Amino acid sequence: MNETRKMLSADEALELLLSHARPLSETETIHTTHALGRVLAQPLVSSVTVPPLDNSAMDGYAVACASLNPGGEACLRVAQRIPAGSVGHALEQGTAARIFTGAPIPPGADAVVMQEDCTVDGDTVVIRKTPRLGENIRRAGEDIAAGSEVLPAGVKMRAQEMGLAASIGLADVPVYRRLRVALFFTGDEIVMPGEPLEEGEIYNSNRYTLLGLLEGLGCRVADYGIVPDSLEATVEVLKQAWHEADLIVTSGGVSVGEEDHVKAAVESLGRLDMWKVAMKPGKPIAHGTVQGTPFIGLPGNPVSAFATFCLFVRPYILRCQGVKQVTPRSYMLPAAFDWTRSGPRREFVRARLEPQADGGLGVTIYPNQSSGVLTSAVWGEGLAEIRENTTVARGGMIRFTPFSELLG
Ligand code: AMP
Ligand code: MG
Question: Does 282 sit in the ligand 1 pocket, CB within 6 Å?
């Protein structure tokens, strides 16, 4: 590949990467209890009405409004008792039904008076407050109509989607199978935590960051460990990884240095599609295929690996998993800092939202934005964007994307 080729902008790189993402075709049916983080492979259509019947929103007394004295008290005989799970009978004229939350409204009743507004005297009840027609009644189908689609395909299941699937009686749901990701780390200086550090060595923090990111996305990760800075070793591990994975992700070794072998190794087994993105942190990002298996090589600097994963690998993986909505939600907010040096690379700075003197929120940034300072990512609540060739003056609006939109 031609090294003088123009750098891609962050937007171009994302677009290119997403255009290469192929959604998995294999699906599986799993218990709804295990669906957290999984992606629906088919829409969920309800065969039931939720709630199935008009029912009481309160513990109290079901009444017919017509049998009450508007504006005054009414004394009614309590003719039946309807706990949740049982069905009453038609309300006789001039009577009330003792009713509990979730119990079906008996035919003839058109309001429920909460028990706090009633006084019981033997088998009669005094209704002290006249209810509105329909008060405290939850209508049949107010949540879900039978036959309606409650969730489309491509939705990632959160706790509330699991509950919704269960509410229409689904013990199992169809989901895409998990993406298998092969992961390895290049660098002769990289050592696993738990081992002693010799001079010149550093710990393999990227393994933990990337494992967390991939597991957060529901991927099945095969960890091929630390690979020495040599072409042969890199080719060897790629040869193992390509047929066992849907995607190969690597850290380090993608720059142009003599000790960077990932690019050459990928090119010897497949092809490399792009490798320089005009962004900070980041810049060297490799993408291609190894014997047809997609490959993404992230830079070794810990913040670069983290940020490029969040910005590029996450949406790519989501798309492969069948997720429709892969763009993170971001917000335009006033900067609480000045940024005076403009450059041709878009900067993604680790930022927080903090209350300002005027009562609104402002974007503040970590003082050290070096791509090796992982503390900045821990301190931050998200990434703020400084666009190419722009400066930012305090109070100017900038884009802020919370980490909650960039992880998982
Ligand atoms: P490279 O992309 O291989 O040139 O590495 C860039 C920087 O990131 C160097 O300072 C490396 O020591 C560091 N680095 C590379 N891989 C890792 C890793 N797995 N964990 C932490 N730092 C790393
Ligand atoms: Mg290296």
Answer: no
